[in-house]
Structures are given as structure tokens and as C-alpha cells.
Amino acid sequence: MFDLDRWNEIFETIRKNKLRTFLTGLSVASGIFILVVLLGIGEGMRNGIAREFEQDASNLIFVWPGVTSKEYKGLNPGRRIQMKNEDYNRILLEHSDKLDKTSSTYQVWSSVISYGKESGSYRMDGVFPDFQYLENMSLTAGRFINNNDIQNVEKSIVIGYQVKNDLFKEVDPVGKYVELSGINFKVVGVFTDPGGEREEARVVIPITTAQKALGGANNIGRLYLTLKPEDNFEAAVAASTAFSQDLDEFLKERHTISPDDNRAININNTLENAKRFYGLMDMIRLFFWGVGICTIIAGVVGVSNIMLIIVKERTREIGIRKALGAQPMSIVWMILHESIFVTAIAGFIGLIFSLTLLEFIGPAIETQFIYNPTVNFTVALNTVFILVLAGALAGFFPAWRAARIKPIIALRDE
């Protein structure tokens, strides 16, 4: 039931102790503010990590050769490993039941490409059709490399969006011819890539054409593989880890590499990386929760201390109330109302400021590992309600102490 006199008492007490009430509310508001901002940053870090993994297939296994670092079977260290078509074909043959999308690639890191008077130096990848899905490319025009291009060694080329802007400006490039290393290629498509301009400043052609027309012979530079889906994330990680180990052993045996040489064959497993990163993010979020909660506890302790001071200051008043017949619970509610009011108002102020900060500044934060920091509104609101309960608990003990004061003792207080 709404009691106007009680609310007048609360506001009168606040007016008499403006600075004390302000500092108490500030400690509570800053606690909520810090907690919500930290939770927002934690979510932004998860978004940033997720965006990094979205650049390629989520379960990608990426293989590239290096240089041997150990002597093995009479072969000196320092050998540069060169993977061949036969490596890729054997992997497909032996693991066809496990593999989903696959592509080997042959790269030329700086190829001069020209159209009319425009020209530029771009990376060229000779690929299989699955490369589009492995690299998470999206077509904005035309089509991607297909099996017909591979089988017939077609001079087809798919250009990145940055290449299209550099060479063609506003002209539709599909159907036009560009010159790559002195050979004319027909543009069959334009792609975009989540990796941005760096990934879009390249072109792709059929790997068979790259090897035959550009001097690649039967050499390949990298392997891109994904496995068939599993029932859950843990099973997918286990299958991916096991396959990566088998792949490492196979390639080391094929190229006479020491089993404990970790530099000759490099395998990057995105599922393993994702598991490590998300595990780390869970620990960081737990740490943020801990820091925020400790800050809130400090504010609640401040509320409790202020309530103790208020009880001490109003001891004679409480004694008079009890002498006039006031019930203990009415004394308790008198103290609790002020505690809950200050805590609730300060908590909502901290919540509003933190959500406003994340709403307006959050979208502008776009670093490599922090992207669009946000916080679930329900979680934030529940946090404030928990804070109000904590404020009520903080005020209860001083209120209960006040309710137990005997009138004769309270009236003697100076």
C-alpha cells in the first residue's frame, strides 16, 4: 500500500544528506555500469573471434609445407617440401568417406593482370570448385570455377571485388577478357570475401589451367579440406583432431620427414583453434563477471554502512516511535524502503548509462578481436533486480538492529 508519509520521510532524509546519498548511489551505479560494460566487451570479443572464424569454412583443415628442421634417413635438414597432385589424390582416395569439401591450390603471389589501359599486381589461386565454400566466398556476378573448367583446362577466371573495382570501374566484367601473364582469360564471375579487401584483391582460375599454362607442373601449394558433419561440437573436434594427425603422418611418410619434425608440414585446424579461443573467452567472461560482481558488492556494502549510520542517527526517533506503539516490522520497513529506493534508482541509472554507451559507441568499435560489443537486455535487467535484492539484504540487518532497540535505551541515546 502506498504510504505518502513514508515516502516524504525518505525524501526528507535524502535532502538532509545529499552528499552521502550521492556517494552511496554513485558506488552502486558504477558497479552496475562496470559490470554491464565488461559483459558487453566480453560479448564483443566473442563476436570478433566468431567473425575471424567465419572468414573460412568453420571446420577447415588447412595444410601447407615448410622446411625440414631435422636430419632423417640420411637426408639433411633444410629441405623445402613440395606437395604434388599425387598427395592430394591419395588423400581423396583413402579418406573419401570422411571428406566433405576439398581443394588443392597452386598460387602465384604476384601476377600482373590487365584490362584495357588498367593493370595491377594481384595474387592468383589455381583451385577446384569447392574452394568457393572452403573460403566462404560469395558471388556478386556470374559463376565460380566448375568441373568443366577443370576437365577442359579452360581459361576462365573469377576476380575479387577489389580487382573488379581497380580494373573495370563501373563496367560489368562478366564476359570480358583480361590478360594474365600474357594469356587471355575470360571473366566468368566476381566474388566477395568476409576477409575484406585483402582477400578480394586476388583472382582464381582452374588449377589444371594454372599448372599447365603458368608453369606449375604437378606442384600444389596448399590443401584445403573439411570433414563431414558430426552430431555435436565435441565429436567434430575429436574427428578433426584425429584426421589432422593421420594427415600429418601420411605427408611425413610420403616426403621422408622425421615424425617429430614440426616445421616441415604445417596443419591449421580451425575447430581446434575455435575450441581453444572459446574456452579462453569463457574464462575472460567469468573474470569480467567476477570483477563486476565484486564492484557491485562494494557498492552494496557501502549501502549497508550508510544504513548503519542512518540507524545510529535516528536512534532517538526510533525509540520514540516504539514508545508510541510502532511495531518492529514497521521500523524494519522504514529503513528498508530507503535502502531499496537508493539502490534501485542508482542501479537503473548505471544500467541506462552503460546501455547507452554500448548502443552508440559499441558499433564504432571494430578491431580484430572486438566487434559490436552488446549485452543481453534481459541479463542486464535481471542484474539490476538482483542488485535491488542485495540492497534490501544490505539494509535489512541495520533495520533489524533498529527494530530490536529497546525504547528506554533509544531515548537515552545522545
UniProtKB/TrEMBL annotation:
Signal peptide: none
Topological relation to the membrane, as annotated: Multi-pass membrane protein
Pfam families cross-referenced by the UniProt entry: FtsX, MacB_PCD
Residue intervals passing through the bilayer: 21-41, 286-311, 331-357, 377-397
Domain of life: Bacteria
Protein name per the record: ABC transporter permease
Keyword DNA damage part of the UniProt annotation: no
